[in-house]
Amino acid sequence: MQGRLSLCGCLIQTSPSRIRCSSSSKGFHRSNESLATYHEIRELGQKPGIGITLAALKVCRGSNDLKAGRKIHADLVESGDISSVFVASAVVDMYAKCGSLVEARKVFESMEKHDVVSWNSMIQGYVQGGDGRTALDLYSRMQEQGKCAPNRVTVLAALKACVSLAGDGKNSGNGGGGNSGWLKRGREIHSQAAKSGDDLDAFVGTSLIDMYAKCGSMDEARQVFESLHHRCVQSWNCLILRYAQKGDGQVAWELFSRMNSEGYEPDSITLLAALKACASLAEEEQGEFVSGKLVKAESLEKARSVHSQADKSGALRNAYVSNALIDFYAKFGSLEDAHKVFKTMPQRTVVSWNSIILGYAQSGEEKAALDLYSSMKDEGGVAANRITLLAALKACAGLAGKEDGKQVDGKIIKVESLKRGRALHSQAVETVKKLDVFVESSLVDLYAKCGSLGDACRIFESMEARSMVSWNCIILGLAQSGFPNAALRYYCRMQNEGCLPNAVTFVAVLKACGVLAALELGKRVQDELMLAGFGEDPFVATSLIDFFGKCGSIVDAEKGDSERVFDLFEKMQEDKLRPNEVTFLSVLTACSHAGLVEEGKGYFRRMSSEFGIAPRIRHYTCMVDLLGRANQLDEAVAMVKKMACEPDVVIYTALLSSCWKWKNTEVGRFAFEEVMKMDSKNTLAYALMANVYSAAGLAGKVGEIQEMGKTAGVLRRSGQSWWTDRKGRVHVFVVGDKRHPLTEKIQAKLDDLFNNLERGQGNGEQCGSGGHDNDLALCGHTEKFAVACALLSSPPGAPVRVVNNYKTCEECHATTALISKLEQRTVIVRDTRLHIFRNGICSCESRPNTDGTLLTAFYVGDPDDHHSSLIPIDTY
């Protein structure tokens, strides 16, 4: 054994004699005796011989005893022996190895002549000290003087300097930019080494391979490798690892296979490089869904073969190899294999725990991830770090997304997840002491998903530094939890504080604008995102479609951004980029929002038939929503019954919502009963089923559903309606609350409207089945107040957009229709659906066109967000 190659491919030079000496306790004691002998002789007032002095310097160098080394140096200066090149070189070497390059350089520069040892000591010292530039300057000076020829040790040190500089993006060499300058220097060193006439040995060859690879020339690295007459494991490792790091997993794997076939025994570093190659190949592999999880079967098979070799060679005892296997298996589809490796490890490190916990968290197995986190604490021995905490927080946030919330003080709270989250927060403070921006951002995200916006905002406001991620977490959390105008305020603050928004920010802001039906404000956001260059992002484009749909701007939704989503999808094909499940989710959502039934069916089929992607629950939800809107309810039910994954509340709610539109009581009852099996207190399901029966004229059944809700303890929210003006201000109206500054004018406007309707200025039409009466005028429903506020505060003829958190009653529905005719305004009211009133007619009375699209009715909210119009809004 002549030396070792570290994981990054850097050579650490050792001599056989040094290895024997350091591995022999007898030799170690003898070396220590040399220093003791030196001191004893000096105490006797005698002068130690050169051999004893050199041996003592060697001990100082090996033990990093700078104090003793300085004493010997002073003695040599006093005795005059420092003038010997041999002795001075030993002193230079001692100082350099002890890390005192200033003292080493001072002795070096005082020497009248230099030998190769002194040059090598200085060059190696600067390389080890991280100053590759000075090391190369000395190498050049050595050559320019021409009095001492570089040897293989000099070449190795110079090549290592090039490698270190190539890895530093701040440096550029010989006037060249980036790594090109150091590549040029490396070629010069290679050329000088070749002029010696000697064949490259394995050490120099490996360093050349590493230098060329690090400087970006894999072709030259491969040429050196192929030219070596004698290869070592380290040279194989270096080339395999560098190809894997460059993302060329196929070549790296081929080299690994060739190494095995040529009889070389892989070591732990080889196996780590091979696993990195497998990971690179897995990133490119399409994979397939097995039990709802994406599995990269071909890459897994390769990794299992590496695993087998590691097991046979004993390399699994190396924690780095075991950890790499856990990480690979967890990321690419085999948590079972990951757990087996984890369980059989003789000693687990914090990296082992982090890999397995994060693997379960990222694979949707959040409960298992949190159980492992608890086991880590219970077992003791290994302390959690910030990565462990981030993995646990991610798992808890994922669990919150799956938990059915409970109503607490009028808010929907994920009680169990919130309890876990607070415990994790407490542990984070104890473990990390000072939370960094990543942990704080994760806590903001977690609390927001648990419904505890107060906690989320408190943590956010306490942060000393905020990243784009933390801003996105608070904005999206507020938007999703029913505080859209607060989300918009944070968006303005984000910009004022100099943090530029990204695609996620714009998706969150558009969601907030959609909840508020703030069309003008959303269009300004559209201008901003286009200017920022996010107009081509498919998620942003889909969010624009959703936003316009929620605002009732059908033309914008159907003819603008949906086309952009489809264009982007086709462009991906042209650029040879394979779409993934998220891509198809965006495309199907666009089809759903634009009512493109046949197009949606086509994309859904292509997912599996052309791209091998198994649909997941959200893809099915998009399709059920699309089919339901087109009155293809039987096909929607058949899809739900045949889908590969378990249906959830959201997909049945989408089906139930469509049944209300088409008065289909049979399918509606089926969907309602399925929801009840999962969540017997689902407020929206009761409201929708009652609406289905009401639309079908079955008043008795409506009462039956209402009684079921009361028995189940379903709570109703306080009625709220809101209107957003052109400046983005949200005007909120709550039942019984008369604090709005325009209350008196609004009441006067309503009185005037009702008087006009009573006098027949609505062309003789009267609201309700029995005409207008005082009960209607004084019913107190907030929708009419919001409409009147908008009429007073917007230009004549401008559309009015109002959102309710309750189902519009029949009386208000009829009244709003007549107001639209009387005022000659388009009035758009959103409750659990969208009502577009024009000239006294509501869009909910429309029917499908022959091509399957709706005339004017448009779905409200994301397919997985059927509570979007039933959420609390923070006050005006």
Task: Give an overview of the whole structure.
The protein is mainly α and 876 residues long. The protein has a domain at 720-845. 64% of the residues lie in helices and 5% in strands. The protein contains 42 helices and 12 strands. It is elongated. Mean pLDDT is 83; it is low at 1-29, 168-177, 762-778 and 846-876.
**In one word, what is the shape?**
elongated
Instruction: Provide the residue-averaged pLDDT.
Output: 83
User: What's the gyration radius in Å?
Assistant: 37 Å
- Class by alpha and beta content: mainly alpha
The main pleated sheet reads as: 6 strands, mixed
Q: What assembly state would you assign to the polypeptide chains in this entry?
A: single chain
The number of helical segments is 42
Instruction: Tell me the strand order in the biggest sheet.
Output: 8-7-9-10-11-12
Beta content comes to 5-15%
State the helical fraction. Answer: 55-70%
Distance between the termini: 77 Å
Are there runs of 5+ residues with pLDDT below 50, and where? 1-29, 168-177, 762-778, 846-876
Number of strands: 12
Outline of this structure?
With 876 residues, this protein is mainly alpha-helical. It is 64% helix and 5% strand. It has 42 helices and 12 strands.
Task: Give me the secondary-structure topology.
Layout (H helix, E strand, L loop, with lengths): L2 E3 L5 E3 L2 H8 L1 H19 L6 H14 L2 H14 L5 H13 L3 H10 L5 H13 L3 H14 L6 H15 L13 H15 L7 H13 L3 H10 L5 H13 L3 H13 L6 H17 L3 E3 L2 E3 L1 H17 L5 H13 L3 H10 L5 H13 L3 H14 L6 H17 L3 E3 L2 E3 L1 H18 L4 H14 L2 H10 L5 H13 L3 H13 L6 H14 L2 H13 L6 H13 L3 H21 L6 H14 L2 H13 L7 H13 L3 H10 L6 H14 L2 H14 L4 H13 L3 H14 L7 E5 L5 E5 L8 H16 L15 H4 L4 H12 L6 E5 L5 H14 L3 E4 L3 E5 L2 E2 L34
